[in-house]
Amino acid sequence: MRRVSVFGSTGSIGVNTLDLLERQGGAGAFQVVALTGGRNVDLLASQARALRADIAVTAYEECLPALRAALHGSEIEAAAGPAALIEAAERPADWIMSAIVGAAALAPGYAALRHGTTLALANKESMVAAGPLFLEAARRHGARLLPVDSEHSAVFQALHGEDMASVERVIITASGGAFRDWPMERIARATVAEASTHPNWAMGQRITIDSASMFNKGMELIEAKELFGLRPDQIEAVIHPESVIHALVGFRDGALMAHMGVPDMRHAIGYALNWPERAELPVKRLDLAALGSLSFRPADPVRYPALRLAREVMATGGLAGAVYNAAKEVALDGFIAGAIGFLDMAAVVEQVLSDMSPRQGLGNPATTLDEVPATDAEARALGRARIAGRHGAGRHGASGDTPRGRI
Ligand code: NDP
Predict the structure, then answer these.
(1) Ligand 1 mutation pick, 57, 100, 217, max ligand atoms within 8 A of CB
(2) Ligand 1 center–CA 302 separation, angstroms
């Protein structure tokens, strides 16, 4: 029986992964080794019971008593904390889903690869902050990395059976986010509420704002460079408002292979779960005639400075991705808190990248995973200082206005 674990099982990707595991036979077809969550221990415990997991782990020590209570009477082990997450990742398994949000996913994902386990990678930060380290661990320990982020799954599928040497370029599509049709002057004054509304679908606030600013797409460009070993000039982004084509791969004979489908993460998760086979999946089928037409437009680096900065990060390489990720997280906190304007987010990230560029070895890949949190912490501290500086400057500005949109 296939042994599987799901890290971040209580989140959006985790719940969809468990849905597919249940549809493909659940506890009768899979041995579920570990399920992990954060604060939602009731859901974690009920998932662990339904799938008869060996162990359930919460990331937080203070949640352990509640998890134990919720698992009372079952034979499922309960554990808590970062070390327990790593221990769970080291348990023998054939397939692990990495769907913890943020940098907390790095250590368990890395541990899984070092034990030769196939890692289905939804978490974006792993490749952006520590791509070379993950790839080296996979190579050295004979583990496989399967992309789950939908654009990267699309590229992976378009590359199936192809020789990487014949790949000319990879094109990642973007919906364009909330402000794709707004004039720049209006974008500068955008409110948190306006940035939190996605034109195509409903998602969490942070990811929706990251879509509007295109920091999410910037992360995906960096992720693609690392995952597929591409040069920065081989990776393009294009605005595709219908979000039907997820990515395209261009080959040296001029052919362009597009991956299309309705936006449903269960496709990419299911592909990674069943790879190299394809299983029947409960996703809607595309009706091309009903769709009528598809449109594309350039991803303007002036409208979307996050893309320009991602290109700089790709050119620098190494730990610059960790800086980009950490700085955009604190910039997003600052925007949500009302301390800075929408376009200030990119300005803050640019300043932090420039503050840290003289740092020795920023362009070199991390040699140990410990270097990533240290760089992350440094970038966050610099980002917070830059935000405080902007906020202060705004407060004492001549107009006395809020600093929203000031860059
Ligand atoms: P969610 O926020 O829905 O879920 C995150 C999961 O991580 C939950 O299980 C949460 O537990 C757990 N968690 C939160 N904090 C910690 C921590 N400090 N340590 C360990 N576990 C923690 O995220 P998503 O499922 O949406 O996304 C997961 C990852 O996949 C992200 O990196 C995201 O960028 C990426 N991704 C998501 C896509 C999507 O469509 N949702 C698409 C492509 C990529 P709890 O809820 O119990 O607190």
Answers:
(1) 100
(2) 30
The helix (H) or strand (E) run that includes residue 126 is: helix 125-141
Residue 406 pLDDT class (50, 70, 90 cuts): very low
pLDDT single digits (tens) 168-182: 999 999 999 889 999
Predicted local distance difference test score (pLDDT) of residue 402: 35
Supply the residue whose CA is at minimum distance from atom 26 of ligand 1.
Answer: 12
Find all residues with CB under 8 Å of 366, minimum gap 6, and list them.
130, 132, 133, 318, 319, 322, 372, 375
Q: Tell me the whole-structure pTM to 2 decimals.
A: 0.94
Per-residue model confidence (pLDDT) at position 160: 95
pLDDT at 127: 97
- Following DSSP, what letter does each residue of 6-25 receive, concatenated? EETTTSHHHHHHHHHHHHTT
The one-character DSSP state at 166 is G
Cis preceding linkage at 276, omega within 30: yes
Judge whether 168 and 252 are in contact, CB under 8 Å.
yes
Strands lying side by side in the sheet with 235-239:
256-260, 245-251, 167-174, 235-239, 297-298
